[in-house]
Design brief:
Distance between the termini: 17 Å
Order of helices and strands: HHHEEEEEEHHHH
Helix content: 55-70%
CATH architecture of the largest domain: Up-down Bundle
Shape: rod-shaped
CATH class of the largest domain: Mainly Alpha
Number of domains: 2
Strand content: 5-15%
CATH topology of the largest domain: f41 fragment of flagellin, N-terminal domain
CATH superfamily of the largest domain: f41 fragment of flagellin, N-terminal domain
Largest sheet: 2 strands, antiparallel
C-alpha cells in the first residue's frame, strides 16, 4: 500500500472534522435540550415525536372545548337552580294569597311581589352565556329565548334542537337545552279537551287570581289551579337542572380523563424528545477531549513530511 503525505493529511483532517461535527451536534442538542434536532438525524424517532405532538394538540383542542362547555353548563345549572327557588317562593305567596284572612291591600302586595318574581323568571329564562348566546334558545343561540308580546303573552322563539360537541375521540357532551324542556307547558283538561298552557301564561293567570285591579274578591279556583300547576312548572325546572347537572358531571369526568391521557402522552413525548442533560454534558466533555487530542495530533502530522513519517 502506498502512503503519501497528502493521504495522511486527508485522514487526519477527516477525523478532526468528524469530531468537530459530533461536538457541534452535542452543543446544539444541549442548547435546545432536545435529542433530535433534524428529522433526518433519526427519521423513526422524529416521526413518533410528530405523531405524539399531533395527538396532544387534539387533546388540547378537546380540553378547550370542554372548558367552554363546562362554563356554559355551570351557568345553565345555576340559572335553573335560581328559577327553582323563585317558583318555591311563588307557591308560598300563592298559598298566602288564597287565605280568606288577607285584605285587598295585602293581596295586592302579594300579587305585586309575585309579578316581580314572574319577571325574574323571564329574565332567568333569557339568560346568556359569556359569549352572549342565549342559554335556552336551542340552536338559535343568538335569538332571545322568550319574548313578551304586545298583549302581554310570552312567546318562545328558540327551537327544540339539542347540540352535542366532541370532547374526545369517541365522546360527546350536550351543550344546550331548549327553553321548553326547562320552562315547560302545563296541560289543562283531559283527553280531547286537553289544552297546553305556556309556562308564563300559567303564572300570569295565577297572579291575576290573587289580585286584579277592580276585582274585590280573589279567584280561588284560579289560585287553586295555579298552585297545582306551579308543582308541574317546578318539576320541569328541577328535572332540567338534574339533566344539566348530569351533563356537567360527565364533562368534569371527561376533563379528568383528558388530563390523565395528556400526562401519559407528554411522558412518552419527553422520553423521545427531551435530552438527558447530565448524560449529554458528559458526552460533550468526552468529545472536547477527543477534539483536543485530534487537534494536537493534526498539528504534529501537518508538520511532518513523508520521509519524517517513515523514519
Amino acid at each position: 500500500m502506498q502512503i503519501s503525505t497528502s493521504l495522511l493529511f486527508e485522514r487526519a483532517s477527516t477525523q478532526m472534522n468528524s469530531v468537530q461535527n459530533d461536538l457541534a451536534k452535542s452543543q446544539a442538542q444541549i442548547a435546545a435540550r432536545k435529542q433530535v434536532l433534524n428529522p433526518s438525524d433519526a427519521p423513526d424517532q422524529a416521526g413518533a415525536i410528530a405523531r405524539l405532538k399531533s395527538v396532544i394538540a387534539r387533546q388540547d383542542s378537546y380540553t378547550a372545548t370542554l372548558e367552554s362547555v363546562t362554563t356554559r353548563l355551570d351557568n345553565e345549572s345555576t340559572t335553573l337552580g335560581s328559577a327553582s327557588d323563585v317558583l318555591i317562593r311563588l307557591k308560598e305567596l300563592a298559598i298566602q294569597g288564597n287565605s280568606g284572612t288577607q285584605s285587598d291591600t295585602s293581596r295586592q302586595a302579594i300579587a305585586t311581589e309575585m309579578k316581580g318574581l314572574r319577571n325574574q323568571l323571564l329574565s332567568l329564562a333569557n339568560s346568556q352565556d359569556t359569549s352572549g348566546n342565549y342559554i335556552f334558545s336551542g340552536s338559535r343561540s343568538r335569538t332571545q329565548a322568550f319574548a313578551s308580546q304586545s298583549d302581554g303573552t310570552v312567546l318562545y322563539q328558540g327551537d327544540q334542537t339539542r347540540t352535542n360537541v366532541a370532547v374526545g375521540e369517541q365522546r360527546t357532551v350536550n351543550t344546550n337545552r331548549p327553553g321548553t324542556s326547562a320552562f315547560v307547558r302545563v296541560v289543562r283538561g283531559t283527553d280531547s279537551e286537553a289544552v297546553g298552557v305556556g309556562f308564563f301564561q300559567s303564572i300570569d293567570e295565577l297572579v291575576a287570581g290573587v289580585w286584579t285591579q277592580g276585582v274585590g274578591e280573589p279567584d280561588n279556583e284560579a289560585i287553586a289551579r295555579g298552585i297545582g300547576e306551579l308543582g308541574d312548572l317546578h318539576k320541569g325546572v328541577v328535572l332540567a337542572q338534574a339533566e344539566s347537572g348530569t351533563d356537567l358531571r360527565v364533562a368534569e369526568q371527561q376533563g379528568a380523563a383528558l388530563d390523565s391521557t395528556k400526562l401519559n402522552l407528554q411522558t412518552a413525548l419527553s422520553s423521545l424528545e427531551d435530552l438527558d442533560y447530565a448524560s449529554a454534558i458528559t458526552k460533550m466533555q468526552q468529545q472536547l477531549l477527543s477534539m483536543e487530542a485530534a487537534q494536537a495530533s493534526f498539528g504534529k502530522i501537518s508538520q511532518l513530511s513523508l520521509f519524517n513519517y517513515i523514519r
